[in-house]
Batch of 2 targets.
Target 1
Amino acid sequence: MSTRDQNEDRQFIALREMAVPEGNIFMDKQSGKDFNRPQYKKLIRKLKPDDLLYIKSIDRLGRNYGEILEQWRILTKEKKIDIVVLDMPLLDTRRGKDLMGTFLSDIVLQVLSFVAENERTNIRQRQAEGIAAAKARGVRFGRPPRPLPENYHSAYQRWKAGAITGTAAARECGMPLSTFRYRAEIYEKAKLL
């Protein structure tokens, strides 16, 4: 599994090898899953007919099959640019501008778009299964809880007896009321065991 930085480095190196000037490289830091990509939008605005766009892989165009096909259509039909997908040499719109070349390119694009979406779905499924299996083994996720303050027991007892309010008890313990109540629930369960 690669980190986001490693992934960006790989993409940057691949584009530099194609002699793309650094000023013409647009890279968003956000995850592609939410498609909030200001740099991509800036790139789209900058493109002019007959420009050549290099992308590392087809999934850089979108999160799913429909989105990838739509972006491809916008770029090639509306913007009238050529696209080269570095990871898939068959997807090079400069080649085969005739009917057969366009047909083959469209088939490859559709297959790869489907594969990209399917892989994203599989990753989410494997991730969910891995988390479920870890939880079944007793693995706890998240930050470990802070130890209870030394005065928690006395504040809890006075709160339970009705001598002080939950807000006052939480303030004494230096924690928000919601945290005090959450920890009280755990504390009560632990006493019952």
Target 2
Amino acid sequence: MSKKYKLIDLFCGAGGMTLGFVGHDFCGEFESIFAIDNDNAAVKTYNANFSKNEHCIKANIEDWLENNDVPRADVVIGGPPCQGFSLLNKKRCGDSRRSLWEPYMDIVQKSGATIFVMENVPGLLKSNEFKDIAARAEELGFNIIEPAVLNMADYGVPQTRKRAIAIGYKRECFIDSEIPTFPPAPSNAAPNINSNLPAWKTVKDALQDLPLQPEGTEIRSNEQPPLDLHFGRSPTEVSLERYKSVPPGGNRFDLQKNRPDITPACWIKKTSGGTDLFGRLWWDRPSVTIRTEFFKPEKGRYLHPVEHRPITHREAARLMSFPDYFKFTGSKVEIAKQIGNAVPPVFAEVLAKYILGLLASRISRSKAA
């Protein structure tokens, strides 16, 4: 068995990105040696899936750095919390979360890694912080490959989730002319594009074998996957009537048109704005971006395509491309947070394979020397 590349995952959450790099159904050419997050339930999930010696730790990354040695690694992956960069955050000035890229880069330096992969919301690339990140990378001897905003639906995820990807490589370990082209070629294409590629994967592709009607309202720990997380909610009669008033592909404006008598007054007053709120997914399209409160239709387009209910935890995990065997731990809310904050593993595998090509370039140069 060939030696695997050592991997560190920062702000790792449940480990969706790690899974794409190390999972036996995924790339599998990397070995996770250290991970860190400040969410206790996510850390437990990570260790349940990847770590016999519980090498994922719950800690504040800056506090941990002050008192611990960083293990040696080949690659550092992860994304500093994205709220500071997000366009959804209207009061961004002075947000301390912006500075979390600094301990990220400290660990890149101290680990001896020759590659880092940073994932974040698209707004990262237009922020002043990214200029600072690039300057720090330059100072540490890294070049950053031209970053890109990628749509994960183009890479086999049944979700139109867009994220910025920035990859850095140690200049002294690589020859620029040998760097593989980035971004990787898509595996799927939007159905309205003239392409020989398969069409985007759809909600139906991901969910069609699950029962239309979930059972119960709690985690079904006595059931095997996928049914363990295929549970529902207990909507009020008014909520249920609201669900029924939204047609396929509809949203809160259809609710207002069809049943103004049960439409929240604040929505009636707000005549413009998000068309995904209280929206219903389509069977024949990918999902919209899955966020942490996908179980609340008032937060986005999270109604089932045909059933009068929001999507379940298992459905959300499927739309994030998590395999059913992946073990989530924690409460319903904690697991939902882990799902919504994750990097879809199928997309992470695309990055892992690209990094393998990059590492092959590093190895070939060392042999030539």
